[in-house]
Task: inverse folding
């Protein structure tokens, strides 16, 4: 059974199935509603129900309090229709958003490579090409009741028949352990996407700074390959942090890109590399490397931060000390449902 869902102030009416969340219906129709954790925990997706009835699903009582339910509010990531609905949402008009509809895809794993001791590269050839903006992510469905996990696409949109994911093993993590230990070439998989609002604001036409840590390199890699391929002519800098040299993947590729493109600068930073190793690059964390590389002055840039929450917090603080402010900083945190329950930075609204 399906219902009509009208989204104001757009005035657009779409179809929503019984048991489908408001957020899922909107994203599949190419309408972006702000959201973050997707588990009813963070309240980023709170909307007003102007008409109709919803079932609140797994919305937590902290993210959606009783008085808010009484006022007709709901969390779009969990709320499901019980009648035709009219909702009022904050729709953010972004000139750089392509608003590509979310779709389900099937494909086959063509190869799995060990990129570092903790990161596997997984290539999936899709039965039908996926349209996405560089920087976006997909949900990969994993077998055995594990469910789906989010992974950023590491390949550029031009290679849309085969997507590359770079997956870091999380100790004790069900999904990433499956990928590292059991997934094999030839396996059929399902992905859903594209998701996310993490993409380059090309229309601003200003210098771009990427700050990435760990497997947070995926989105920046896709974005950088995309920018360079289309001849983006402003300076592009990648500051990429890992613990040690053996964890630094695609290092030679980025060195080669910096040779070929005068507007691309690559600054690798190692935080725990042994002193005697002969590493001549920066030693320390990503935010420290960026501070030195930019002489603590980030004015005029747009910065894109991707990686674990602690790295992102440190980078935001460094950028702000260097005179770059919230409106020019974009983040993609690798949060899980468990992370989302922790206190979030008051400095930032998640994208
Ligand atoms: C938008 C987005 C994009 C992402 N892109 C990538 C990517 O490109 N590559 C990639 O490797 N990962 C990426 N992640 C993170 C990835 O989804 C998680 O690592 C994954 O969900 C962990 O799944 P799991 O089943 O192994 O762990 P789970 O079994 O779900 O969790 C086990 C435990 O590990 C903790 N945990 C979960 N994730 C992490 C983490 N990243 N670091 C430390 N502890 C964690 C949980 O809180 C929990 O306590 C992304 C996450 C998001 C939200």
Result:
């Amino acid at each position: 059974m399906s219902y009509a869902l009208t989204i104001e102030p757009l005035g657009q009416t779409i179809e929503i199935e019984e048991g489908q969340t408001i957020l899922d219906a909107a994203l599949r129709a190419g309408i972006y509603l702000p959201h973050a954790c997707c588990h009813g925990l963070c309240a980023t997706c709170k909307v007003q129900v102007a008409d109709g009835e919803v079932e609140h699903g797994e919305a937590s009582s902290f993210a959606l309090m009783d008085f808010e339910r009484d006022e007709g509010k709901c969390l779009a990531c969990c709320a499901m229709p019980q009648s035709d609905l009219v909702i009022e949402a904050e729709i953010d008009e972004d000139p750089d958003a392509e608003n590509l509809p979310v779709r389900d895809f099937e494909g086959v794993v063509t190869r799995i490579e060990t990129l570092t001791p903790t990161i596997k590269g997984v290539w999936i050839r899709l039965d039908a090409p996926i349209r996405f903006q560089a920087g976006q992510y997909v949900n990969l469905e994993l077998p055995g009741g594990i469910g789906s996990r989010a992974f950023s696409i590491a390949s550029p949109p031009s290679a849309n028949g085969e997507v590359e994911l770079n997956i870091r093993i999380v100790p004790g993590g069900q999904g990433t352990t499956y990928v590292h230990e059991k997934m094999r070439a030839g396996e059929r998989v399902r992905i859903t996407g594209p998701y996310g609002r993490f993409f380059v604001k090309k229309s601003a036409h200003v210098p771009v700074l990427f700050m990435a840590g760990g497997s947070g390199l995926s989105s920046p890699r896709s974005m950088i390959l995309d920018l360079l391929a289309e001849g983006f002519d402003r300076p592009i800098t990648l500051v990429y942090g890992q613990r040690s040299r053996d964890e630094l993947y695609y290092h030679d590729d980025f060195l080669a890109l910096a040779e070929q493109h005068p507007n691309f600068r690559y600054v690798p930073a190692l935080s725990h590399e042994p002193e005697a190793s002969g590493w001549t690059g920066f030693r320390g964390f990503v935010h420290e490397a960026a501070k030195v590389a930019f002489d603590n002055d980030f004015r005029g840039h747009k910065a894109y931060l991707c990686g674990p929450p602690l790295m992102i917090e440190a980078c935001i603080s460094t950028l702000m000390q260097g005179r770059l402010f919230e409106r020019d900083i974009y983040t993609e945190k690798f949060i899980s449902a468990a992370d989302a329950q922790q206190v979030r930075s008051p400095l930032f609204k998640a994208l």
